[in-house]
Specification:
mainly alpha, Four Helix Bundle (Hemerythrin (Met), subunit A), 3 strands, globular
């Protein structure tokens, strides 16, 4: 339930400002309100929802300054992924990434921002699996989901082919680094792409909130 609701938030099925009803979610998942309440509390801890007395639980709105601060931290953490007990990739991992790359490349002729974001989330799952340090992995996962939806929000107003090409280059470069078993190079590639994405996001959003 947690992963499903989190994915709905990150893929904008629940846009910022959406009210999440415990009763409706409990009915949908066939459970009582108690486990739903626990899920929402966890999502609130992760900054994806906020509980307001007398109103209910709302999907949060990410302001640009907070987004920059999260990205600054993600950039530093990305560097550590190549240093703190990185897990060497298996042939299966590289094959999975190559399959995702093929699906990325096919997106050039298929305009579907949600599917592109879903593919990038799959890429991120594989990257998280290579982080051997558990606290680093948990923090990296939480921060990724705090920022991922902002890119999807502005994606319709960016150059589609360019964004697909950038995603393909990142994944292709990562695969190359992993084939060489160069985990520090992989971490550097990811850090550089995070910085570029923040730059594109900042230029688009200016000083306004990401809504």
């Amino acid at each position: 339930m947690y992963q499903e609701i989190r994915d709905r938030i990150c893929l904008l099925q629940y846009p910022p400002g959406t009210m999440l009803s415990e009763n409706k979610l409990a009915a949908e998942f066939g459970v009582s309100r108690t486990p739903i309440r626990r899920v929402l509390q966890r999502l609130e801890f992760e900054g994806l929802v906020v509980s307001k007395q007398g109103i209910g639980t709302l999907v949060t709105i990410v302001d640009l300054q907070y987004l920059k601060e999260v990205y600054a931290l993600r950039l530093k953490l990305a560097e550590l992924t190549g240093e703190l007990s990185p897990i060497r990739p298996t042939r299966e991992t590289i094959t999975t990434l190559e399959t995702i790359l093929e699906e990325f490349e096919a997106m050039r002729a298929q305009y579907d921002p949600t599917e592109l974001a879903r593919l990038y989330n799959r890429f991120q799952v594989e990257m998280l699996a290579l982080i051997g340090n558990r606290p680093l992995r948990e923090i990296s996962e939480r921060l990724f989901h705090q920022t991922a939806r902002v890119w999807l929000q502005i994606l319709p107003d960016l150059d589609w082919v360019e964004e697909v090409d950038i995603a393909c280059r990142e994944l292709s470069d990562v695969i190359g680094a992993l084939q060489e078993k160069d985990m520090q190079a992989m971490a550097q590639i990811r850090s550089e792409h995070m910085a570029m994405l923040l730059g594109r996001t900042s230029r688009y959003l200016g000083g306004i909130n990401a809504r």
